[in-house]
């Protein structure tokens, strides 16, 4: 293709065809780099005429990305308004090749008007995008590159659909990035919503990671809210694969202000009629081990006394041996 065309002028009239060809696409990209504005201006009208399709083409998407790097603000406005606008950009963002072009579009937004056009176009499909293999990268790019207030459309959706998003393979990761990039007011609203849903989320294969992420932030008010929401269910949660990790994290939280909340968790576990099952459970036994590790004084002594009657039952089980070792260590201390 390079041998057939020496200049952009010779390509005019078939830019769309060349853009879809591996060698033609590379030739045009190189011309944009070498000749800059002149080459861009000559090709722009032909590219914009089919820019939506080109964004989703295996090779054409690279030419659109290069155009976004090189074009002026007026031309970028044209790209944002191309096709049918709102539904088009979401569809492109969901496409394997289109997601790259839309991410580049987000990276190159320069004016308040461009940002408004892009965010309004993405807003109707934001939850779909967050949960999509390709689309989630577009939302993450918005979080990385735009100001927090420009991403309010993402935070509104994340708060309104927190459980739907947090319990999704891709959504749980995006939700964590939302927390990372939020302004203070956005973070507080989102964290508060996640904490309020802690009981449901803790038991989910993906949602539990979101709750643990919130606990790791070290916000005493958020940690206290999570622990209160899980109250009354700690024994049952301790015997489930995903939620047992959340319970352990609650027990290991540092800070004097959370000590009373932690003690409530310990008392609930040691007073539970399920204690004997917890001691034998492949997940629950780790929670009991954590209670023995984090308690001290009279509460620890009371916990040991609660466990003692169950020792004959557990002494021959692999889990029980760990508990016995901890009891012996606490007796020495």
From TrEMBL:
Sample GO molecular function, one term: mRNA binding
For this protein, the record's Gene3D superfamilies field holds: Leucine-rich Repeat Variant (1.25.10.10)
**Per-repeat ranges for Pumilio:** 46-81, 121-156, 157-192, 193-229, 268-305
Q: Which residues form the PUM-HD domain?
A: 1-331
Domain of life of the native organism: Eukaryota
Transmembrane region(s): none
The record's PROSITE patterns line, in alphabetical order, gives: PUM, PUM_HD
Query: Would you indicate the residue range of the signal peptide?
Result: none
Sorted keywords for this record are: Repeat
Q: Which Gene Ontology cellular component terms are annotated?
A: cytoplasm
| GO terms of biological process kind | post-transcriptional regulation of gene expression
One Pfam family name is PUF
What PANTHER family does its record include? Answer: PUMILIO HOMOLOGY DOMAIN FAMILY MEMBER 4 (PTHR12537:SF13), RNA BINDING PROTEIN PUMILIO-RELATED (PTHR12537)
Question: What is the role of this chain?
Answer: Sequence-specific RNA-binding protein that regulates translation and mRNA stability by binding the 3'-UTR of target mRNAs.
Designated name of the protein = Predicted protein
Q: What does UniProt list as this organism's lineage?
A: Eukaryota, Viridiplantae, Chlorophyta, Mamiellophyceae, Mamiellales
């Amino acid at each position: 293709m390079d041998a057939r065309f020496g200049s952009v002028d010779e390509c005019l009239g078939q830019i769309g065809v060349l853009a879809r060809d591996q060698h033609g696409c590379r030739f045009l990209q190189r011309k944009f780099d070498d000749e800059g504005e002149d080459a861009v201006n000559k090709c722009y009208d032909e590219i914009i005429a089919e820019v939506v399709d080109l964004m989703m083409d295996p090779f054409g998407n690279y030419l659109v990305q290069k155009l976004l790097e090189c074009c002026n603000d007026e031309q970028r406005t044209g790209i944002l308004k191309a096709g049918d606008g709102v539904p088009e950009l979401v569809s492109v963002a969901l496409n394997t090749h289109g997601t790259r072009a839309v991410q580049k579009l987000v990276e190159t937004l320069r004016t308040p008007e461009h940002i408004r056009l892009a965010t309004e176009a993405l807003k109707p499909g934001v939850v779909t995008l967050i949960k999509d293999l390709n689309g989630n990268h577009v939302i993450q790019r918005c979080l990385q590159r735009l100001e927090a207030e420009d991403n309010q459309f993402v935070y509104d959706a994340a708060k309104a659909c927190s459980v739907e998003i947090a319990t999704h393979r891709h959504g749980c990761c995006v939700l964590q990035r939302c927390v990372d990039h939020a302004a203070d007011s956005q973070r507080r609203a989102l964290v508060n919503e996640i904490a309020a849903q802690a009981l449901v989320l803790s038991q989910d294969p993906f949602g539990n990671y979101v709750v643990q992420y919130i606990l790791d932030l070290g916000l005493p008010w958020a940690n206290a809210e999570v622990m209160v929401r899980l109250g009354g269910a700690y024994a049952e949660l301790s015997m489930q694969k995903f939620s047992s990790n959340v319970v352990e994290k609650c027990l290991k939280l540092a800070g004097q202000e959370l000590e009373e909340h932690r003690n409530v968790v310990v008392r609930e576990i040691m007073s539970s009629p399920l204690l004997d099952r917890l001691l034998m459970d492949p997940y629950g036994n780790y929670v009991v081990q954590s209670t023995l590790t984090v308690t001290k004084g009279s509460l620890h002594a009371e916990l040991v006394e609660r466990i003692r009657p169950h020792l004959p039952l557990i002494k021959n089980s692999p889990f029980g041996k760990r508990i016995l070792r901890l009891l012996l260590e606490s007796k020495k201390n």
